[in-house]
Amino acid sequence: RVSTAILISGRGSNMASLVAAAAEPGYPARIDLVVSNRPGAPGLARAEAAGIATATVDHKAFPDRESFERALDARLREASIALVVLAGFMRVLTPWFVARWEGRLVNIHPSLLPAFRGTDTHARALAAGVAEHGCSVHLVTADLDAGPVIAQETVPVLPGDTAETLAARVLEREHVLYPRALATLASHIARNRA
Ligand code: GAR
After folding, report:
1. CA separation (Å) from 3 to 82, 83, 109, 136?
2. In 3-state terms, what secondary structure has residue 29?
3. Which residues are bridge partners to 34 per DSSP?
4. I need a labelling partner for 67 at 20 to 30 A (CA). Which of 14, 36, 130, 169 fits?
5. What is the Å distance from ligand 1's center to 157 Cα?
6. For residue range 20-35, what is the model confidence (pLDDT) as tens digits?
7. Mean pLDDT of 81-95
8. Which residues, other chains included, contact 53 with Cβ-Cβ below 8 Å and sequence gap of 6+?
9. What does the record give as the active site (predicted)?
């Protein structure tokens, strides 16, 4: 199974859905490490409760992005990680880090990419008046939220929706989409190295 790390910054509900999926027999990825850039992120306690090793690499402890990423990269290599999964990880990664993990770095984004890259996707989708919204899993490239899309899930935008109700509807689909997309990617990586 492909040794996988999940990077988080907060709540960690996607991380929890991936950990649950990876506990199923035959799942092609093994979650070996959860790393947060924010000390005390609620997701860390959730990971620990599930018996997953955790680490904190606090970006505020470093003078610049690259030194933060070098520390993060060192932690991942120390754990012999082969695949890095961003799940609510709210730091933009530099081209250096992205190149180092090319093809083995994946993200979930709460919109139907290429629509609504960046933040506040649910409020922006409502403001734009779209009928459908959703989430995308994509490979990470140096351009923010612009890498090749691996999988998407769509939800309707309903009358009376707020950013919160829409976010909750999308999040439910994220929890289904991400485990499925990670399985596809991990199987692909396992086949290529066999
Ligand atoms: C999720 O909705 C995820 O798609 C989004 O943050 C939330 C994290 O929730 N990610 C981004 O906006 C990335 N730019 P979680 O911590 O409960 O998984």
Report:
1. 5, 6, 22, 23
2. strand
3. 6, 54
4. 14
5. 19
6. 999 999 999 999 999 9
7. 97
8. 32, 33, 34, 79
9. 109
84 has which bridge partners? 5, 105
Tell whether residue 13 is among the known ligand binding residues. Answer: yes
Residues shown for the chain: 194
Q: Is 65 annotated as a binding residue?
A: yes
Active-site residue flag, 122? no
Q: Rounded to 10 degrees, what is the CA torsion of 18, 23, 24, 30?
A: 70
**Ligand 1: centre distance to CA 154 (Å):** 16
Read off the pLDDT of residues 100-145 as tens digits, 9 standing for 90 and up.
Answer: 999 999 999 999 999 999 999 999 999 999 999 999 999 999 999 9
The predicted-structure confidence for 138-171, as pLDDT tens digits, reads as follows 999 999 999 999 999 999 999 999 999 999 999 9
Helix (H/G/I), strand (E/B), else coil: 143: coil
Is residue 86 in contact with ligand 1, taking CB distance under 6 Å?
no
DSSP characters for 53-71? -EEE--GGGSSSHHHHHHH
According to the model, what pLDDT value does residue 194 have?
A: 78
